[in-house]
TrEMBL record:
Cross-referenced PANTHER family: CD83 ANTIGEN, PTHR15193:SF2
Ranges of residues in domain Ig-like: 33-120
Gene3D superfamilies, per database record: Immunoglobulins
Pfam families: V-set
Transmembrane segments: 172-196
Signal peptide (from-to): 1-24
Top-level lineage group: Eukaryota
The name this protein goes by in its record: Peroxidasin like
Keywords: Membrane, Signal, Transmembrane, Transmembrane helix
Length: 208
């Protein structure tokens, strides 16, 4: 009897649930995704976002209730999400781990029909962009040629100095010899004049 009532309850819930076709969404890695929940209206008991897991298990993400339609309650999760306008689900910086089927379930009041929207999200693989490393161009440095400093040839200079000094020495010797000869000649002339004068004076004395 209990199994029959449970079957009837599940069957009636499925009849009262309005399903929509699963919508596919693609996103790039680290992009932002917004999943809408259209046609919610204002007369509802709850609006809940789920993410389907393995074996048809669902994990609650966030939920609005008729008591507070402005701010939802967040389920405990390792994934940080946000809510947008019109009861949409916002997932920032998605990664391949966020791929999967998301479900927005609208709980209707008594006598109404529940509504469910499903989105299959596919996030592309994250590719690390290649880091461009600028290559520093080789700087051409001009090579200064070696300046050859001539080594002074002291022997040659000494010889040149001697060659230059020899004519001057010769001139000095010549002038010195000429000057000395003039002096000697002057002395001789003076002596001769004195001898002549002496002889002249003696002859005069003898005459007297």
């Amino acid at each position: 009897m209990i199994q029959t009532l449970l079957f009837v309850h599940i069957f009636s819930s499925q009849l009262l649930m309005l399903h929509s076709a699963v919508q596919s969404r693609s996103a790039f890695c680290r992009g932002n995704v917004t999943l809408p929940c259209p046609g919610v209206g204002s007369d509802f008991v709850s609006v809940t976002w789920y993410k389907q897991r393995i074996e048809q298990h669902k994990r609650g993400i966030l939920r609005w209730s008729s008591k507070d339609k402005l701010k939802p309650d967040f389920f405990k999760s390792n994934r940080s999400v946000h809510y947008g306008p019109d009861y949409s689900l916002v997932i920032n910086a998605v990664t391949p781990a966020d791929s999967g089927t998301y479900e927005c379930e609208v709980g209707a009041r008594v006598g109404g029909r529940n509504k469910k929207e499903e989105f299959k999200l596919d996030v592309s693989a994250c590719v690390t962009p290649a880091v461009w490393t600028p290559v520093t161009p080789a700087v051409w440095t001009p090579v200064t040629p070696a300046v050859r400093t001539p080594v002074p040839n002291t022997t040659s200079d000494h010889c040149r100095l001697q060659v230059q000094e020899l004519p001057a020495l010769r001139i000095a010797v010549v002038y010195g010899t000429v000057g000395l000869a003039k002096i000697v000649l002057s002395i001789i002339i003076v002596l001769i004049i004195r001898c002549v004068q002496t002889k002249s004076s003696k002859r005069r004395q003898q005459k007297w």
